[in-house]
Amino acid sequence: MNRDLLEAAYKLEITGSLEKLWRIIVDVMSLHGLHHVLYLIRDDGPAPNWFVLSNLLEDWPKDDVQNPAFREPFVSYCCATFEPTKLGVEFLEQHRDFIDDYTRTYVANMARFNWTIGLGIPCCLVGSGQHGGFLFGNDMKRHDFERGVMPLADQLQAFCQIAHRKIESLRRTAASETPRRRLSAREHQVLELIACGLRPKAIADQLGLSEASIRLYIKNARLKLGAATKEEALIRFLKLCEGSNPD
Questions:
Q1: Strand order from edge to edge, sheet including 85-87
Q2: What does the alpha-carbon distance between residue 87 and residue 221 come to, in Å, rounded to a whole number?
Q3: Which residues contact 137 (CB under 8 A, 6 or more apart)?
Q4: Could you tell me which of 4, 36, 19 has the C-alpha nearest to residue 174?
Q5: Tally of CB atoms within 10 A around 219
Q6: CA distance 56 to 102
Q7: Are 229 and 41 in contact (CB under 8 A)?
Q8: Domains within the chain, CATH numbers bracketed
Q9: pTM, entire model
Q10: Taking Cα atoms as reference points, which of 223, 240, 217 lies closest to residue 175?
Q11: pLDDT tens for residues 187-201?
């Protein structure tokens, strides 16, 4: 990893502020000509379920992700492996056999931010409880991007994993410091059934509810417990139950 990225990685490790952390990431990417930076993570569960950091105008797409129909193409299609993906209108032809009109329009709209080319780096994969990663971009010509940015892809990937781990750590800390609301009776019941080994569909059938409702109860319980994943929520729930039932 080059010196700039190494120094930035060290700063990430010692900062306790998400705002400062994001500034460090944006600044070091700018040193390498990557002036546009997004961090998009989609948690499993009912939409909207996004966490977004952005240095684009009005923090785009923070408002858009509140729409349950929102779909971010990189997060939707490129997080099955850790392989970096070339992005932007400059690479649309390369992906033309795999994308739909929604994606074409989305990518074309990014040009309004002078984002015509970029690189997406997955940090967590589909099936892990959440998926997504970093998107970096600028308005370079394709030849200049291939020559100036792509040789750094492996180093950027290592840096992104460090940054992702720190972001998620700060998110969990913030959640744990937030006063938690008491679980509703239904949320408590659903977690009890999960602890017994039942899956959402089986719970829905048993309680006479839709599977989407069960997943919403799980999500709400996870947020109230300050957990990043369903598994972490279950662990915290069981600990709470143990604490409230002394021998």
A1: 50-54, 36-43, 130-138, 117-124, 85-87
A2: 36
A3: 34, 35, 36, 87, 88, 110, 115, 116, 117, 118, 119
A4: 19
A5: 19
A6: 20
A7: no
A8: 3-176 (3.30.450.80), 181-238 (1.10.10.10)
A9: 0.73
A10: 223
A11: 999 999 999 999 999
